[in-house]
Write a structure and sequence with these properties.
Elements (H helix, E strand, L loop, with lengths): L10 H8 L14 E5 L2 E4 L4 E4 L2 H4 L8 H13 L10 H14 L4 E6 L2 H16 L3 E5 L8 H4 L16 E5 L14 H17 L7 E4 L15 H12 L2 E5 L26 E4 L10 E6 H4 L14 H16 L2 H20 L5 E7 L2 E6 L9 H13 L2 E2 L1 E3 L5 E4 L7 H19 L7
Parallel strand pairs: 3-13, 5-6, 5-7, 7-8, 8-9
Antiparallel strand pairs: 1-2, 2-3, 4-10, 9-10, 11-12, 12-15, 14-15
Helix pairs in contact: 3-10, 4-10, 7-8, 11-13, 12-13
This protein binds 4'-deoxy-4'-aminopyridoxal-5'-phosphate (PMP).
């Protein structure tokens, strides 16, 4: 694509001079995105990219979707901020819609400005309701950047501190194809994880407050547990009175194709007690939130407020975005086009022994890279592939315990043609990054 150009604006140098060192940028020559349309974005040098990461699964419907930008500008022209001290029509309307969609009976919704803050609220509710600070979380999980969210984040590379307001017990099960139970079939895998959970609970003094889990671990590299794992966990939790928090920050709103919420791949024995969401619902406007049944939501005995949570402009955007999603059956599109994309990527990977696994569901896909012929994660290869894809006009993400998985999660309006274009570019990027020796003999 473009030859390596000097950082003409000096923006990268200014970024490094004034922003934290741990706020990492993708690419050797970081990109400044200046505008977008549909599934495409453009950088400040005029290059166009097919966007397969959607600003980390956040541009849910499309870039510059007229329905959403119109709703934002109409609301902004009326009033931008009121605070939650006053009645807000868009907030009540979006809460009604989310409550009805959540599957949680007698649901109440609290809006925040991020996924982290949503999980903080869920942990506050669960620990208050259960009068315990003991939390079960999954190994390799990611739940956010605050003190309590880090305390339930099992993924080492996103855990900058081990100090914690919680006592966290990490449970097996989120990573299907690695770890001690990887060789088992699905049924035995679930049975082993349940036995481990039961054993841990027997050895734990006091009542555990909640299990927090992502139905599919996104930051963890799009790891998909067997369907039914969390239903089996749920039976154990119910016996102990332990709450189940489903972190749907990445898996919500139909992205996984088969289901509207990730938890629905698991539970035929009812919804979670609490559900958290963020990212996609605002299509880039900062909306997060937690849903819980009234008894749990109302268990706080002091006031609690998020000044920006549920602000009118974000709520208007969320409503317009949700309407578009439902009216255009984007869940069905994620199932159809995502299914095709996964198949295409599996076909590409079938000839490459540096690809250990192509996994995922709907438009949430992971490609795990290893040193050829081994099970050893290859983050250096992932970096090369991400660069090679960029050079060919495709943006993808990275994740996994050691950063060796590609993450693919385009806006949910992705067309078949765009899926094919992306798969072709990724195929070329893999060939370029792996070199001629990559193909299996
Ligand atoms: N939960 C999950 C599952 C996430 O993927 C993320 C963000 N990657 C968060 C919580 C935190 O969301 P935010 O960055 O909006 O605070």
């Amino acid at each position: 694509m473009t030859p390596a150009a000097p950082d003409r604006t000096g923006l990268h140098a200014r970024h490094q001079a004034v922003l934290p060192s741990w706020l990492t940028l993708y690419y050797d020559r970081p990109i400044e995105l200046t505008h977008g349309e549909g599934r495409y974005v453009w950088d400040s040098e005029g290059n166009r990219y097919l966007d397969f990461f959607g600003g980390i699964l956040t541009t849910m419907t499309a870039h510059a979707l007229p329905e959403v930008t119109r709703a934002i500008s109409k609301q902004a022209a009326r009033i931008i901020h009121t605070s939650t001290l006053y009645l807000s029509r868009p907030m009540v309307e979006l809460a009604e819609r989310v409550a009805a969609l959540s599957g949680i009976p007698d649901a109440r919704v609290f809006f925040t400005t991020s996924g982290t803050e949503a999980n903080d609220a869920a942990l506050l509710l669960a620990t208050t309701y259960r009068r315990s600070n003991q939390i079960l979380a999954m190994r390799n999980s990611y739940h956010g950047r605050s003190f309590p969210a880090i305390a339930v984040t099992g993924n080492q590379s996103w855990s900058p501190t081990s100090f914690s307001p919680l006592q966290t017990l990490y449970v097996h099960g989120g990573v299907r194809t690695r770890g001690p139970y990887a060789a088992l079939n699905d049924r035995d895998y679930i049975a082993a994880c349940v036995a481990d959970l039961e054993d841990m609970l027997q050895q734990t003094a006091g009542g555990v407050a909640a299990l927090i889990a992502e139905p599919i671990q996104g930051v963890g590299g799009v790891t998909v547990p067997p369907d039914g794992l969390y239903a089996a966990f749920r039976d154990v939790l119910t016996r102990h009175g332990i709450l189940w928090i489903s972190d749907e920050v990445q898996t919500g709103w139909g992205r996984t194709g088969d289901h509207f919420w990730g938890w629905q791949a698991h539970a035929d024995n009812g919804p979670p007690d609490l559900l958290t969401f963020a990212k996609g619902i605002g299509n880039g406007m900062s909306i997060g939130g937690v849903v819980a049944r009234a008894e749990v939501m109302n268990s706080l005995t002091a006031n609690s407020i998020s000044t920006f949570g549920g602000s009118p402009v974000t709520m208007a955007a969320g409503l317009a975005n949700l309407n578009y999603l439902l009216e255009h059956d984007l869940q069905g599109n994620a199932r159809r086009v995502g299914g095709l994309l996964i198949e295409r990527l599996r076909a590409v990977a079938a000839g490459l022994d540096a690809v250990r696994e192509v996994r995922g569901r709907g438009l949430m896909i992971g490609v795990e890279l290893v040193r050829p012929g081994t099970d050893v994660p290859a983050p250096e290869t992932a970096t090369l592939v991400v660069e090679a894809a960029r050079e060919r006009g495709l943006l993808v993400g990275k994740g996994g315990r050691s950063g060796a998985s590609l993450r693919i999660a385009p806006p949910m309006t992705l067309t078949v043609g765009e899926a094919e274009e992306g798969a072709d570019i990724l195929s070329a990027a893999l060939s370029a990054a792996l070199g001629p020796s990559a193909a299996l003999a």
